[in-house]
Every structure is written in C-alpha cells, then in structure tokens.
Amino acid sequence: MTRIHRYAELPLNHLGFTVEYRDIRHGLPAASDLPRYAGVLTWFSTLPAGRRAYLDWARTALRSARRVVILGMTGGTFWTDEALAIDALLGQIGLRHDRRAVELTLGTVQQARDRALTEYEGKSDPVLPGFEVVDRRRPDVEPWLELVLPDRDGGGRSVAVAVSARGGYAAAGYEFMENPGSGRSRWRIDPFAFFARALKDERWPAPDVTTLSGRRIFFSHVESEGLNNVVLTKAKEQVLVAQVFLKEIVDRYPDLPVTFALTPGDLDPTIGGNETPREVVRAIWSAPQVEPSVASYTRPYRWGYFNDYSRAREEELVAESRAPGRLGLRRLADYMNANVRTDRFVAKAREYPRNYLLKPFDLAQEIRTASVTAQDLAPSEKSVRLYQWTGDAHPSEEAIAMTRSLGLLNINGGEARFDQLYPSVSHLPPLARPVGRQRQIYAVGGNEIPLVKAWRPAVEALRGLRTTLVNTEAPRRLKGLNLHYHLASVGNSEVLRLIQGYLDEARTAAIIPIQTADYAAMADDFFNVEIVADGASRWWVRHRGMVQTLRFDDAEAIQVDLAESRGVLGQTRQGSVLYVSLDAAVEPVRLVVDGAIPPRNSRVGLTDSRWQVSKLIRDGADWRFTAQGFGPGDFAWDGAAPGRYRVTANRSDARLWSADVETDAVGRLSFSVPLSGVERLSLTVVRQSEAAGGPP
Asked: I need a surface site. Which of 159, 180, 359, 478 has the fewest CB within 10 A?
C-alpha cells in the first residue's frame, strides 16, 4: 500500500511501464541488474527506517541505472554524513543539495515553467510546504518549478520540480497533496508528462488494455451477494432478487455480456444458505451472453482476517453479537431448532469477517470447492474461468496462488473513483496489486457497496460512475468501461434504473463488449508483453497473449505502414492518440510506422469494430477475417479501393448472410452484420464489378 502503488503505478502502467517493488530493508538489486530496468523510482514521505543500507547502495549502484526518479524526500538527512549519499542520488539527475532547508516559507515565490505541469489538479495552497534547497548542476536539467527564496533565507533559487535526460525530481509537498482525514488526494505535478519525460525520450508503443478492435472496452460483472433476498413487485408479490436480475438485466439485454459470480454458500442450507434460487442461477448462466464465474464459498468480507485465523476468536465475535439472555435458554433454543443456531452464524449487514461462519474457515473450500461446485452447476458448454474476490478484495498470496493452480483468472479490488467526490486521477488504481509472487487484477470500476452496507452509498456511487467514465476517457483514455455491482442492489428500484440506464447507453455507444474473464486475461498479459526495437520506427512485439492493442501518444505526425507491418489489423485515431489493432492469430507482430500521412503503401485496415477480429488475410482489393462478439456486428475499414463490395458471413461453411455495401468518399467501408456473434463467424469482403462488366 505504498504511495508508488496507490498513486504512481497507474500513470506508469498507462505509459507502458511495469513496476517491480523492492523493500529497502530486505535486499536491493545488484548494480549489474539495474541496466535492464527503465529506471529506479523512490517515494519516501518520511525518513525510512534502516536507510543506511539503502543509502550505501545508492551511492554506488545507481551509477548503473538508466534513470533515477525521486518523489518526495531523498531518503537521507543532509546535516549528517548521509549528505554524500544524497549528493549521489541527486547528482544522477543533474541536481545537488545546497545544505539548506526552509521551514517558514512566507515570502517564498513560486516560478513555474508551465502551470499546467505543476498545478495539474488544482492550484497550490497559499502556504507553501517547507523544502530543502536544491540547485541545478547540469544545463540539461529542465526546471518545471523553482522557488525564489527571500533574503532572510539567504536568497537564491531552489528546484522543486525538474526533469532531465537522467530522470526527475519533485520535492515533498510539491509533487502530491494527501489528506488522510478525508481520504482524498491530488497530484500537483502532471504525472503522465513527468514520468514520460523522466523515464523515456523516444517514441515507443505502449501496450493498452482499455481498447480492442479500435474501441473502448466494456464489461460487466456481478457478485451473487443478495441471492436469497426477496423483494415486492408492484403487484405486491414476493420474488427473489435473482428473478428480477434475470428478467430486468439478462433477458432485457441479450446483446450485452454480463459475468455472474456465484458464492455456493448462498445455496448451501447446512451453513445458512437456501437452495431455492438454484434453478434461477441455472437459468441466468444458460443465457448465451452470461459468463459463469465464482466468488468464494462463505463470502469473506475481510480477507486479511484469515491470514492469522483463529476459530475461537471468530466464535467470540458471534457470541458478542448475540442478544442478551440466559445462556441455558439459548442452548435449549439451539437444541430444539437447529435453524436458530445456523442463523446466528450468518452475517447481517457484513457484521462478521465473512457471511457464513457456522463451520471453520477453510481456504481450500473458499476456492477449490467453490470452483468445482460452480462448474457443476454451470452449463456443460461453459467453463468457469474467473474468480471474483469478495468484500474488501484483499486476498493473501496463498489465496491468489490457489486460484492460479486451478487455472482461474482473478479480479476485483481497487475501488476506482474519479467523480465529484473524488476528483483526482490519484483515486484510480493501477492494473494489478502485487502480492508476493502473485498478482491480483483490479476491477476497472469500483463497486457500489461499501464495507458497511447502505442503500444511499450504492445509489451515489453508481451516479458518480458516469463522471468517472467521462474523466477516464478524456483528456486520455485511462480505463475501459466496467459496470460492477452486487445482486442485492438490483432489489433497489432506483439502483436498478441506474444500471439499466448505463446498459441502454452501452447499446448505442462506440464500445466493444467483452467478457470479464477476457479483461482479466488482458490485464495479466500486460506484464508479459515484450517490445523490441528493430531499427527506426520499427518494433517486434512478442508474448502479448490477450493484449491486442498498442498505443502511441502525441502521434499526429505518424501512421502505421500496413504494407510493411505483420499481424496488424489496422489503426484508429482519437485526437492525438493512435491506437493500433493487432491480430490475435499472429505471433510475433512486426510494427512499422511511417511519417507520411497518408502512408506511402496504403492497404485496407480495420478502423474499429464492435466484435473482436482476427485471422485477417488481405488478397488484393479483397479480404477475409473471423469475428466474434456481442450485439450488432458493426465494422468500419479504411483504405478500401472505391466501389461496391459483397460482404458474406459464414459459420461452419454455411452461408448465413450477405449484403452489398459501398465505400464512402474517403474510402471507408462500413457495414453491420445482423447475426449473433457469440459463436465465431467467418466473413469475406469481395470487390464487385459494375453491371456493365468493367471494373468499378
């Protein structure tokens, strides 16, 4: 839960970097290992304990580092013999310590090179934070923010924020603002511009998991919490919330995929569950667009509680929550009615560490048994591929490892917010949380229920989702669209209307709907992508797995050369950003970009699609490909020769549909296939001759 993970890793992931964490108390990389990293980043908010070994390492090892980035404190004291290590740290960037500090900043004046870079999320406070005086020692250092000292402090200037060809520096209090009391924070520096300048100075494609086939991804996942809840209809009839979900979400939106995760304990009467909704779960999972998944067995709310589990302590929690009464009468009631005792071990409003406590906690039951039970209930043609963390979604390394051993992907946690209440990019999580040697994939969107269940937060959180979706699309696309909620919330009519509103918008939006497990796989594979330069503006892309998009920022002056590239479907531009769609059937991919717009060697290429496209084969003016997806099969292709084309869709060699379409004035060919794409289709696009017989 360091600042680097909570705040810095998101912009670093966006720029195409992965982060490897090292605890300075438990060993640091050898100097010979440092050149393989893009840079070394530290962010100390206080003087670290046990810093002597770190500072000794930094004095020598950092000479081998490509770049050094220091946020906050340097990690040492300038008035002791640690000053030499501070000089070595700052010297790598091109700075030096002046052996002075200013605590009372009245009269200090800020001079910013560009306020957009140093007042990224709001103006600075009138009272400036205290600072240590830092000078430039090399001319290539670009000061973004300097502080002009008053005469009483010796005058002169101090660098508060700077970048160079060797890294970057942002002083404590001038990089970031954090309010622990309110839980809110904001960046002072522009982290995207800062890390981009401090860690690289050449154009490089970044793997992107927000976009697929040229469109922003959309996925929705639901946990079964509330499976046994009953609500009243308008006709005053009692129905299960699961039946409302089936009717109002599953049946109403067959064109939008949804992942429904079962907690099997909800159906287990021996621990307090109820078998009644079993057939409703089967009906939900039987819908073609529904992906089955699993979310524990007894629904832990606080996973950390079970890292050092004590059954006796857990039973004490139940005993303390019992209503006052004579112990003998309570035992008699338990003896006469087993349900009374069972109900006492079922959490009400998340009062216990987990939902069902009648039996001792067993990690194998939470993961292995839960997964097998869910798979037995799922349709035979569907596999349970995903494990959704419950409650605070803070699993242990052992828990994550167990899901991996079963071949399961995993997701949840992070609590992404970028709305009116949390108006900062700092409240967006990175792609994943490292847990020892394991990795927990964060959900893209925060769920609607806080740890203490209440309806109003559920409504407010879902209302804020719209602002989050807008803020994560512009000025840069930081996240895909993720609708994440619990089944219990569907029983609230206002929440249900909000969910349906988002789904109505998704139907007509320029998005690509995917299954949640596909996103989890994309986020996993992000960390394995290898991009190797093969000359100027040429790269080989390997080991990308499910990652099928590369992104260039500030790319107004470049275009992909489709003729020279290999395994590239096409490209689409959003403002100054260029998204490059890759063919999942081709490994490795060779990417070549060209400064000529339009490119010198023009070929047909995918602009965007609502379905996932692969196995593209170009044959002169014709092409063919396979596609799979949800909703209407909308496609747009650029670079087609002018004229009329016959589009044909086949499945298993049977022709299902064909139509004639024409290019527009700029050579774009757009069409929509009115078939279900849940099962893969093969499509061919053939240029037609004019009725007179000549070429069009």
From this structure: 180
Q: Is 555 strand, coil or helix? A: coil
Nearest to 123 by CA among 196, 43, 197, 186: 186
Residue 324 has a pLDDT of 52
- Nearest-angstrom CA–CA distance, 232 and 240: 9
Helix spans in 454-588 (H)? 455-471, 493-508, 516-526
Q: Is 460 exposed, middle or buried (0-12, 13-18, 19+ CB in 10 A)?
A: middle
- Residue 410 DSSP SS3: strand
How many CA atoms are closer than 13 Å to the CA of 421, on its beta-carbon side? 12
Q: What is the pLDDT of residues 34-54, one digit of tens each?
A: 999 999 999 999 999 889 999
Cα distances from 198 to residues 33, 161, 395, in angstroms, run 20, 11, 34
The candidate with the shortest Cα–Cα distance to 517, out of 617, 434, 407, 421, is: 407
Sign, CA torsion 110/115/117/122? positive
> Residue 200 contacts by C-beta under 8 Å, 6 or more apart in sequence?
15, 38
DSSP character for 566? B
Structure tokens at 69: 């980035």
Going from the C-alpha of 253 to that of each of 51, 159, 260, 486, 635, the distances in angstroms are 57, 56, 14, 17, 21
HEC-encoded secondary structure of 601-642: CCCCEEEEECEEEEEEEEECCEEEEEEEECCCEEEEEECCCC
Neighbours of 433 (CB within 10 A): 21
Query: Half-sphere exposure (CA, 13 Å, Cβ side) for 94?
Result: 18
Who contacts 460 (Cβ-Cβ below 8 Å, separation ≥6)? 421
Tell me how far apart the alpha carbons of residues 532 and 553 are, in angstroms, rounded to a whole number.
Answer: 18
State how far the Cα of 446 lies from the Cα of 468, in Å rounded to an integer: 10
| Alpha-carbon gap, residue 677 to 8, rounded angstroms | 39
Kindly tell me the burial class for residue 402, based on how many C-beta atoms sit within 10 Å of its own C-beta (0-12, 13-18, 19 or more). buried
pLDDT digits (tens, 9 = 90+) for 99-133: 999 999 999 999 999 999 999 999 988 899 999 99
Q: What is the DSSP letter of 695?
A: -
Over residues 522-534, the pLDDT tens digits come to: 999 999 999 999 9
Question: Taking the chain, what is the end-to-end CA distance rounded to the nearest angstrom?
Answer: 63
The single residue listed with the structure tokens 């990175």 is 430
Taking the C-alpha atoms of 566, 572, 577 and 580 in order, what is their torsion angle to the nearest 10 degrees? -20
Neighbouring C-beta atoms of residue 619, cutoff 10 Å: 10
DSSP 8-state code for residue 325: -
The answer to whether 58 touches 88, Cβ cutoff 8 Å, is yes
Higher local confidence (pLDDT), 339 or 376: 376
- Asked whether residue 329 carries a pLDDT value surpassing 50, the answer given is no
How remote is the C-alpha of 474 from its chain's centroid?
A: 16
Closest alpha carbon to 160 in 117, 104, 107: 117
Q: Please name the amino acid found at residue 559.
A: Q
Structure tokens at 66: 């490509």
CA separation for the pair 614, 604 (Å, rounded): 14
Q: CA 600 to CA 611: how far, in whole Å?
A: 29
* Separation CA 487–CA 223 (nearest Å): 6
Distance separating alpha carbons of residues 5 and 432, to the nearest angstrom: 9
What is the SS3 assignment for 255?
coil
Strand partners, 533: 539
Angle in degrees, 0-180, between the axes of helices 455-471 and 493-508, rounded to the nearest 10: 20
Helix, strand or coil for residue 596?
Answer: coil
- 83: tokens are 């000053």
pLDDT, mean over the chain: 93
pLDDT value at residue 124: 87
Q: Which amino acid makes up residue 105?
A: T
